[in-house]
Every structure is written in C-alpha cells, then in structure tokens.
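Progress note, project year one: complex with beta-D-glucopyranose.
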Amino acid sequence: MTRVRIAGNGCLVLVLGLGLGLGSLPRCGAQEKAQTAPSKASMPWMNTSLDADTRADMMVKQMTIDEKIQLVHGSGWGVLRPGAVVPPGDIGGAGFVPGIPRLGLPDINLADSAVGIRGAARDSRYATLLPSVIGMASSWDPEAAHLYGSVIGRELRDEGFNMSIGGGVDLIREPRNGRNFEYASEDPVLAGNMVGQLAMGVQSNQVMGDIKHYVMNDQETGRNTLSAVISDKVMQETDLLAFQIAIKMAKPAGVMCSYNRINGVYACENKYTLTDVLKDEWGFKGFVLSDWSGTHSTVQAAMAGLDMQQPGDRYFGAPLKQAVLDGKVPQARLDDMVHRIVRSMIANGVVDNPPVPRVVDPFQGRRDARHIEEESLVLLKNEGGILPLSGSVKSIAIIGGHADEGVLSGGGSAQVDAPGGLPGGSKWGTAVYFPSSPMRYMKEQAADATVSFDAGTDVAQAAKAAAGAQVAVVFVTQWMSEGMDRPTLSLPGDQDKLVEAVAKANPNTVVVLETGGPVSMPWSGQVKGIMEAWFPGIGGGEAIANVLFGKVNPSGKLPVTFAAKDSDLPFEHVTGLTAETGNNGMDGNAAHGKEAKDFTVDYSKQGMLVGYKWFQVKDETPLFPFGFGLSYTSFAYSGLKVAPDATSASFEVKNTGEKAGDEITEVYATLPSASGEPFRKLVGFKRVSVAAGASDPVTVAIDPLYLKVFSTEKNGWEMLPGSYKIEVGGSSAALPLKEDVRVTK
Ligand code: BGC
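Model obtained:
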C-alpha cells in the first residue's frame, strides 16, 4: 500500500507499506543540504585525529552569530502539533535543530525514546516496544540495561535519528507518579547505575544520548509550576545522586532540565543545579536542553546554564541574539552553549558517521525485548510452589487484562506505536495493548490443557469461569502515563474485587500484574501466586508464559517498595491532586482549568527517607520490600569479608535448590552515627548465575561515593570516620551477613 504525503518542505514523500520495517524515504530538504556541503579538505575541523573539543572550537570560530543562535533552539513543535511547520530535514521526531551545511555540521533529529522510539508508525516505520524502564531496573543487570539502550540506539540510527530523548532517572519518590514506568528506582545507586548503562547503550550506536528530567520532577500533578522544597544536602544524597551516577558513567550528550521549580526557581533556569552541580561539580561537558516548553526566560536561563531551548525559539531565538548584542549574555556564554552542542555531536560520531536509514530488524528487537523482560519479571508470592505451572495442567482459566490479545504499554511521550498500528500513531491518553498475547504462549506450553478466557469485566461471571478450572490466572492492569498521577495505590476499577472473587472460587489462583509502578494488593493473602510483569514490552506475552511454566527461572527483584496502603507512605496523598483539581488536566477525569498551580511539595518532611529508608526508620512493614523477589530455587549466603576501607564485600552464594538460577546479591551500608542517617542504604549489587547445588564466590565493589555524606559547609562529599555496618543478602529486608568495619580518615 502506498500513501502520498506533502512534507512540510513542500516535497512529495512516498511512504511505502504499513506495519513492519519499511523505512520512509529521505526528504528532499535533507538531500538539498547534502549537495551544498563543501569538501572535507576545506574544513580542518573535520580532521578526526583531533579531539572533539578542539574541533568544536575551530568550528564555532567560523560561525556567525545567526548560525550560533540557530543551534541553541529547536525549530518548533513539528509533527507534535498538527499544523506546525515541519522544516526540511526534520524526519518526524519530537525535536529538530537544523545544522550548518557550509561547515559540514548535520541537523540534529531528536526522537522521544524512553522505552522505544515514539511515533514511528506515523511514517510507517517499526520500533520495538521494550519493557518499561522500571522493569529493566528490576533485572539489576547492567548488561540488560546496556542492551536496552543499544536497542533504542540501533533503531534510532536505522530510522535516521541522531539523538535520543529518554534516560529517565528521576527517583521514584511518589509511587503513584504516572511516569514511574519511565524511571528506574526509588534508590539512587540502583537507578543511576542502570540508567547510566542504558544511556551508554544508546551512545554505543553513535547516537547522542540524553538523561532526563533534571531534577525533582517526581510527580506529574502540577508539574509545570510546582516547587519542590528540599535542602541541597538531601537533594545531593537522593535525587541528584542518581543523576550524578548516570551522567558520570554515560557522559550523555544531553541533560534535559525539567518543568518544575526547585526551591522556587524553575529547573531550566536554576543556577545551582545546572551550573554549580551539573557542570562545575560533576564536570558535565554536554548540553542542557529544556523539556518541551520548559524554558521561561532568556537571560536568566542562559546565565543559569541552559544551552538549548526546545522546541521553539521564543527565548533563545531573537531575544537571545539581542541579549548577546546588548551584553546581557556574554558572547563567551553563547559560544559555550554552541561548543557544548557541537562537541557532543562530534564526540558521539554523528558528524563523522551519521546514521544511514535502513529497515529496522523487528525480530531482533522482539528477542531483545523478551530477554530483558524475562530478567525483569518479579515473582512476589509462590505459596505451596504453585508455580511453575506444569505442562500437564488440565485446565486453565485466564481472566482479565486483555491477556487474550496482548500486553499493556505506558502512555504519553513514552508511547511506542504498536506494530500495524494506525497511521498517525497512537493517541495521547489512550491505553495501547501490544500484540504479544500471554494466552497464546501459555496455550503453547500447556498443549493438552483446556484454556478459557474471560474478560473479567463481570466479576460474578469471571468467578464462575475460574471455579471450573484447575488453575486460574488473573491479569490485572494499571495504565499510567505522562501528565497524570494515580490518586491511590489501588488498582483501577473493580480489579481488587475481581481477584478476590476469583480467589474465592478457585484455590489455585495466580495473579499477573501489568502496572506502571507499585500497587496495593488487599487480596495478597488470598491468592497462591503473584508475579509483577510491569509493562512487559513486545516480547512480554512469551516472557510471562516462559516464567509461569518454568522455561525461565524468575530472577527480578523490586526496585521500589510496595506499600500495603497509601497511609503508610510519607505523603498519604499526591500533593496537589484532589477530586477537584485533578492532575494536569490531562487525565480525562480532571476538573479542567482548575488544576492546582504554584504549590509546593515539601520534601523536607521526608528528608533522606525515600522508599525503603522511610519504612525502616518508621519501623513499618511494607507489603513487599525493596530488593525482594523469589526464584524457583533458593540461595544461601555465607563467609562475608569486607575490605578494611569498606570498598568491597566478598562472600559465597550457594544455590540450595534443584534448578539453576540467577540471584541478585545486594550490599547495604549503615553509616557511622555521626552522619545522622540511621538507615541502611544500597551501596552495591551483583547479579550472578549459580548452577543447582553449586556455591560461587562473589565480590561486590563499593564505590566510596556511596559511603560518603554531602557536607553543606564544605560544599562537597566527605567520608566520616567511624564504624560502617555492611550487610549482605537477597533483599533489603533479609540480610543474613553482617560485618562492622572501622574506617579512619
Ligand atoms: C516530556 C518529555 C518529552 C518531551 C518531548 C515532554 O512533555 O516531559 O519527557 O521528551 O515532551 O516530547
């Protein structure tokens, strides 16, 4: 099938085929530009034996002020807003910055790609939907995180994009935050390390990577105006630490500043976070780009450290040029912005080795997505060893969650188009199921069983369907999206009632959750099996079946605490979210126009106690603790030895069961009492594969930074002398090995 479309540049573009893998043809604007580029010999900055900074300096020296200004802002909303101009060379991502052909500098085509590339179907292109980032983090596997990013980088490149917009590493402070599926963890060490690997994976494809949303964008309600109240010390040791780890590890081209304010000042004009911390303290050499419409000023934003406005030019177009001419923004600052952008393009290979569009390999993408999901599934309950299900099971009643058709994905700018989805792409605010049916793959593995499906919409009818079967597997879902938070931890609709009724009707009930984050489970005592699949991605149906039937031994562990109820959380309600105010007015049931604005979210109440640290200090037992997850085998820990300076922990892990399995080993430290931080925190982890009956030695390195505290007086990190308690085990709440080490200065 052939569609004909008029591109924004007036060129005719033929878009061939629907569905899988057909690349769109290059637009004529891009071709015209390529023809005007001079030869490399006349451009000494194209000498690849010089370093990126030298080459960038040489190039910046050649630029006129107008060319410099052109590089520090996007060209408008493009394909994101119907009717907006799509300039020549823009290949349909969320952002576009035209290059300078006379200097051999290519355009920057940025695509949203938090969990896969957004909007690909618009041009009849295919993109792999990966499991959600929170799922990837549940693998605690740096290799899986790297693979995750490299799938994104590979496909971006195949589609002609040279910059990814993704890499969400905001801490999951608010378990009802609609974007938790784009983020990794409540713990900065886990989040930073996993998302750092992800961004490295993206950049390993010579595509520029990005880390976002910097910083304190920890809820969606009121995100455009809310002010996060937090001390520098607490922010450094919590949310900023996650960014620091990821940014130092990956050296991403871009860091996207967020919509919210921090202590009253917008994140995109906040000198403390952008310049003092990111650029000066951490030595970030890339560029800061604003979230879309997150720029609020010209001089203040430029002087605070913002390097690129997106998506338009309201502040960083003509007004910035005027501010430079008037001396309000020094020429050197504009040159620094441009240098950062150009050096990032050179350092990541997008100048010397630009992407060459070709067909995406959907099959490889699906295999990679399935592998990551298989490591990400978290088995939370397995009473009486109900799982794995035997291949000789006689009858299974599958209930709910559209499990006969596919798996749920998250919404907003992280939405990937389903294969064969509608031309024009998925609609913002609509739940999309991907064609990876858990039921189909479960049927394959239980070839002789009678498998029935009930949609779960009528509780009594579902209970009836469950009653007649040997096993009931209920799929429950919690759709989440940018632009909304869930008002409570409860599963939406009647799903709690559904599980209770099914469990009453069938003693062998297993629940599979497809959720964006933690949910409450008032029925957890009534079912035999519980498995968290998150938003499982395009390989999800198969991965779920593989774990349910034991082809794959589950190994994921929770990167977030599951509280039993909202009143156990530091904030019983999402700040600013009431029946009256709604979220951002984007969730359909909000009272539009009445959104809460300009309010503060006072994190000083919670201080350092994010996630499991809160539960520890309050001595409350969550429903499922951070770092918890079961296997079809069991592991025993012994023989802890901690290095005298506490920079490593060595121990043995024995697989005491009858199946080979992967164990995620976790190392926690409690700092000396002088720190005033009376809780254990994660300082290292390692995922190991152990054969049945075998015993393996494990050494986990501990980065000294994770043992330090941030001193406000010294404006830096310091290691306090004293006794450090190091604990090791398989969950934050089960740490059989302990040793105290005395560290002197
Ligand atoms: C989101 C960003 C996204 C941008 C561009 C914003 O609404 O917060 O995460 O990258 O849009 O689509």
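Residues 142-158 form the longest helix (17 residues).
Residues 1-35, 585-591 have pLDDT under 50 and may be disordered.
No further modelling is planned for this target in the current period.
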